[in-house]
Amino acid sequence: MEILKQISESLEKGDFNRVGELTQQALDQGLDPKVILDDGLIAGMSIVGQKFKVHEIFLPDVLLAAKAMYAGMDLLKPLMIKENIPSIGKVVMGTVQGDLHDIGKNLVSIMLKGAGLDVIDLGNDVPPAKFVDTAISENADVIGISTLLTTTMPVMGEVVEMAKERGVYGKVKIIVGGAPLNADYAEQIGADAYCFDGVNAVDCVKRFLGAG
Amino acid sequence: MRDILDRIKNGEVLLADGAMGTMLIEKGLKIGDCPERLNLDKPELLGEIARQYFDAGADIIQTNTFGGSPLKLAQYSLESETEELNIAAVNAVRQVVGNNAYIYGSCGPSGRLLKPYGDTEHQEVLDSFKRQITALISEGADLICVETMTDLEEARLAIKAAKSIDSSIPVSATMTFDVTPRGFFTIMGVDIQHAVKGLIEAGADMIGSNCGNGIENMVKIAEEFRRLTSIPLVIQSNAGLPEMIDGRIEYSESPEFMAERCKQLIDIDVNVIGGCCGTTPEHISAFRNVIDKHNSKNS
Predict the structure, then answer these.
(1) Contacts 24+ apart (CB under 8 A), A153-156
(2) Contact: B247, A185; criterion CB under 8 Å
């Protein structure tokens, strides 16, 4: 489909106005919202993710692509809800208590949404209990915890402990990410996976859901 | 005090201080608290840190104002105290060093993303830096330290803010680079070539790099800067990347290890050397020895 390719390419360039226009055009042509999402927006976003991973492009390019993603999603979302298209899973995301940095977390949220997941974004400075309580009340599959500061890393362990206390450890998978982290630390605190970037986070979540 | 830029021109290498944040945590700064709040609540802690670095031989001592711009302070609802917090920080250092060291007014990122990547207007960031730097300069900061920048445009706004308040105040501007397979880039995708051009154009008197992934990478970064410009260079390296050891954060590079690489930095013709996260008064003292050897040869 020519228009889907155009959506994907405009998204890669971060041309959010064009992506909005093209998405509307695709809908007007009668294309299925799910197809526009998968073969237009998500297709573009995964190329962006790959290029970001190999440092071919950088954060600003991803941020613009994300804006473009939202420009298209905002049009598709209401239609998809109406048509009852199920999401493939639900992720509760947030930056740990004491950490006000949210660029990394936002990027991962965008990538997850771009992969067709429902994301509940709790923002930054999130207390451990809120991660777990929200995951339980929203019936989420995965908790994603982000941190930038070495000083806030231990709070991630508290989220894991709380999940054990509430009896959801193992049922709700816990993934962690952020600049100072590594796989050893994730294992040490009992997290289910360490994700080194947004693309990797999408792979992890899909693996847990049996969809990857 | 003699003009710092004159001293550099005469071939002297100057020593800046080491980490502030990690020292504050050592002294009890709680996770999630605003570091700048200590300027009013516990100024004696800042005096202690300044004293330790001054005694270790630093020529340049930083203020605890990294997050002291109103945009950044707003994350803790402290923006209305911008002036008080910045003024108190300068005072805490001045009380210790008198006129025997330069006071380096620290000015870190606003924590906001500029348009079109984020939602913040350039003017808003410029005004925010102006407000912070006005307080720093009015209280007698000797130079302004724009640091840990990853967005070139934001760094340029901070430099311009300082120069618009006092065109004669020396401004240093350093950015933080990551190692990628394609070379050194900030997380916002700025390479060293663009950094050099953009920072100088905006009016910086000294440029370079701080924070980062350890001093061996910093040596390479410094080489690349020096290949591109003859402007005074500032390098303030982390003591390696933080590691979690038995629930404690540790930085692996020892004073001796880093001091050895300081010699290389001097050979590259870096003009101001100091430390960033994880460096301590012991590191600075070890740098002092290396720098003294160089300066005595040159005098």
Answers:
(1) A153/A96, A153/A178, A153/A180, A153/A181, A153/A185, A153/B244, A153/B249, A154/B247, A155/A96, A155/A97, A155/A98, A155/A99, A155/A128, A155/B31, A156/A96, A156/A189, A156/A191
(2) no
Q: Do A55 and B185 touch (CB under 8 A)?
A: yes
Contact B174, B239 (CB under 8 A): no
- How far is the first Cα of chain A from the last one, in angstroms, to the nearest whole number? 25
Q: Model's pTM, two decimal places? A: 0.88
Which of A150, A155, A176 is best to mutate for the B interface (most B CBs within 10 A)?
A150
A111-128 per-residue burial string, b: 16 or more CB within 10 A, e: under 16: bbbbbbbbbbbbebbbbb
What's CA A25's distance to the chain center, in Å?
26
Buried b (16+ CB within 10 A) or exposed e, B148-166: bbbbbbbbbbbbbbbbebe
Exposed/middle/buried for A82, CB within 10 Å: 0-12, 13-18, 19+?
exposed
Residue B186 in tokens: 């900030």
- Residue A66 sits at φ, ψ, to 5 deg, of -65, -40
The model's pLDDT over B62-99, given as tens digits with 9 standing for 90+, comes to 999 999 999 999 989 999 999 999 999 999 999 999 99
Query: Which value does ipTM take for this structure?
Result: 0.81
Instruction: Kindly determine whether residue A55 and residue B188, on different chains, have CB atoms separated by under 8 Å.
Output: no
Report how far residue B280's alpha carbon sits from residue A204's, in angstroms, rounded to the nearest whole number.
39
Q: What are the structural domains, with CATH classification, of chain B? A: 4-298 (3.20.20.330)
Alpha carbon distance A102, B291 (integer Å): 40
- Give residue limits of the domains in chain A: 2-82, 90-209
**CATH superfamily membership of A2-82:** Methionine synthase domain (1.10.1240.10)
Asked whether the beta carbons of A115 and A202 are under 8 A apart, the reply is yes
* Contact yes or no for B71/B79 (Cβ under 8 A): yes
Q: Are B194 and B153 in contact (CB under 8 A)?
A: no
Q: Nearest 5 degrees, angle CA B249-CA A154-CA B33?
A: 85
Interface of A with B (CB under 8 A): 54-61, 63-64, 67, 97-101, 103, 125, 150-155, 180, 185, 188
Compute mean pLDDT per 10 residues along chain A, 212 residues long, and list them: 94 96 97 92 89 88 90 90 81 89 84 86 93 96 90 90 95 92 92 90 91 54
- Residue B298 pLDDT exceeds 80: no
CA within 13 Å, CB half, A29: 13
Question: Once rounded to an integer, what is the mean pLDDT over residues B196-220?
Answer: 97
Fold classification of A90-209 (topology level): Rossmann fold (3.40.50)
